[in-house]
Amino acid sequence: MYPNGNRTNSRSSRFTAHAAVQLQRYYNKSAYRCDGVADSKKLEVLSHEDSDPLIQRVRKTFPRCNINLIHRVNAPQMYGMYLLRKEEMQLTPEYSREIILYHVTTKSRAIESLISGLDWRRTRRSKFGRGVSFSDDADYANYYADNFPKEDKRVIIVCTVLVKKTHSVSGKPNDKNLMIPLGTADTTVSTNGRVYVKYNDYDFYPMYLIYYQRTPELINESKYFRNNPNNIRQQNHLVAQQKELQAQREVQEAQRRRELQAQRELEQAARRRQELQVQRYLEQQRARQRQVCEQERHRQLLMEQE
Question: Residue 4 forms beta bridges with which residues?
Fold first, then answer.
């Protein structure tokens, strides 16, 4: 016999209401708190004052991020399932913890995730396992985010993530087909500690959506640009181009100096010719004056003799 629909809806409403209260308590305890009771709006704009601590946290690892808006996420049902998963993990004696991690995606996918969640089943790139990838470094998350969508409006989803037991993966080809972590691990972690991969739907909850514009400068100026083997080749090519351009500039500069020197020499020669011409003209004038004076003296002598 199927359960009564009204009773099921009532339980669901109570569950959602309880989760909403817990979610509000969580935000009140958070360093990035936002006053007000969680309501039916799934997204609430954070004020400038409330955004500052979150912006500072993101810019510790992603200083050039051009943040233009931050939303707080109110998804009580999703948060309720997260709390149930958290309690389930705490039933075992192994230590579990909550950590703040980042997941970067397009704006459209971020909005879609508020309904369907971050779905590990849609993973196409799986260097460290076929799950949802997070990072503790926002720059890393941006740099290695999926470049296939042409949408440059990006979102950093700030998530609280449950981590209990981890399994380290190196990112070798065999790790790409890893569907679940080995043994009793619930999380795979890259050997450099930058990537966390989760495989269960409610092991994480999106707290904030941070909107920014992805630009080529954010990629080219990333601290991870040099560490990418493909980009090392690009950099070597750029270095070779820069050296070639520098050599061309040096040749052009030497040519310019020669031309300037030749021009100065021509100008000096022209000035010398002009000075000689002036000197000859003055000498000619003095010679004429002497001749006139001689003629005048000669005329006076003739007049005296008469």
Answer: none
Strands 67-73 and 43-45: antiparallel
- The sign of the CA dihedral 165, 170, 171, 173 is negative
The string of pLDDT tens digits covering residues 66-79 is 999 999 998 888 88
The distance from CA 12 to its chain's CA centroid, rounded to whole angstroms, is: 42
For β-strands 153-163 and 132-135, DSSP reports them as unpaired
Q: How far, rounded to the nearest angstrom, does the alpha carbon of residue 101 sit from its chain's CA centroid?
A: 17
Identify the CA nearest to 130 among candidates 202, 204, 197.
197
Residue of 101, 261, 273 lying closest to 187 (CA atoms):
101
Structure-block tokens of residue 204: 């994480």
Distances from the Cα of 279 to the Cαs of 43, 75, 79, 273, 283, in angstroms? 91, 97, 100, 10, 6
**Closest by CA position to 117, among listed 70, 83, 157:** 157
Taken as a whole, the chain contains a residue count of: 306
Distance CA 132, CA 126 (A): 9
10 Å Cβ neighbour count for 129?
28
User: C-alpha distances in angstroms, 67 versus 64, 116, 211?
Assistant: 9, 25, 6
Q: If DSSP codes are grouped into helix, strand and coil, which group holds residue 62? A: coil
User: Tens digit of pLDDT for each residue in 237-275?
Assistant: 666 777 888 888 899 999 999 999 999 999 999 999 999
Q: How far apart are CA 46 and CA 257, in angstroms?
A: 60
User: Distances in Å between the alpha carbon of 264 and those of 63, 85, 138, 269, 296?
Assistant: 51, 84, 58, 8, 47
For residue 179, give the nearest of 120, 118, 113 by alpha carbon.
120
> What type of residue sits at position 299?
R
Residue 104: name the closest of 249, 231, 208 by CA. 208
Q: Which residues contact 84 (CB under 8 A, 6 or more apart)?
A: 202
Question: Which residues of the chain, if any, have pLDDT below 50?
Answer: 1-8, 31-40
Q: Which tokens go with 98? A: 């909550």
